[in-house]
Amino acid sequence: MAFDTIYLIYGAIFLAALLLVEGLYHLFYDGKAGRDAVNRRMKMLESGATTREVFQTLRRDSQAEVSYLGPLKNWGSDLDNLIQQTGMLLTIQRLLLMMVALAIGCFLTIMVLARGGVFAGSVTAISIIAVTSIAVGIGGPIAFLKYKKAERLKAFAEQLPDALDVMVRSLQAGHPVSAAMTLVTKEMPDPIGTEFGIAVDEMTYGLELREALANLGERVDVEDYQYVVVSINIQHETGGNLAEVLHGLSTVIRARFRMFKKIRALSAEGRLSAKILAILPIAFAALTFSNKPQYYINASSDPLFWPLVGVTICLELIGIYVMYRLVNFRV
Length: 331
Prior knowledge:
The chain has 16 helices and no strands. The protein is mainly alpha-helical. Among the domains are: 154-253, Receptor-associated Protein, CATH 1.20.81; 267-331.
């Protein structure tokens, strides 16, 4: 009896889905770590780990992570920095495995769904599916990491005024800046509690205050935090009432957030309309290709087909950029 290749495809889809689910489970588990305590760093310390072990875990060594990638080392380093900025304890190896599993699963799923028309025929269609699957496999996890990074930076910025108030109370009680930062690590939740904890650990193991604050700024690219760094550096060199300066910064940052949230509420309808208009052409093309792939395949031999596809993609990207600029405001 001849062996039907469809069973082999089903088996490959099952394996790819299994690897993807396992990767997502570990990703989800890592993202939830530390919620029982004030922040992740305190949770790791309470579990019995030493301060140095916690510091080495949270302060990733990107060079060691990506040294095996060879020519792609710079890309791997940027990817590792992105993972660090999300606050996840995810390794490069695990992320690459998830990308491969997602790409294979996407390719095989589309091939099975479209096997009535595409699977048995055109090499062009298979090439398009392969390129699309690779793009989804690589772009999907990266887009998710960038989303997590943006959410984490937003949370850090919103927590910053409260952290400054904690530091102000500590400074008014006569404590030095390092002790005020230590209080933030014990009182504030993630992400700001863990990030300040890494900075405190860096000072404990030899870095100066200025260097530790600069490193924190590299990990957390928040504009308001840079004002805090400048204020602390000036006070460290020339003296002055740092508590009063930080209190003023806290008040200004809170006022900016109130204004920003008001603008977001007023522009909510425009942002929703922009998202729908951006998704509609892509969804329509994908739906047409999945239901009637020959609609595009038969026209692909026309010399004007690919130039028109390129023009369409460029116009779509320009439209998305224009709508983004119209509904996003800098405060």
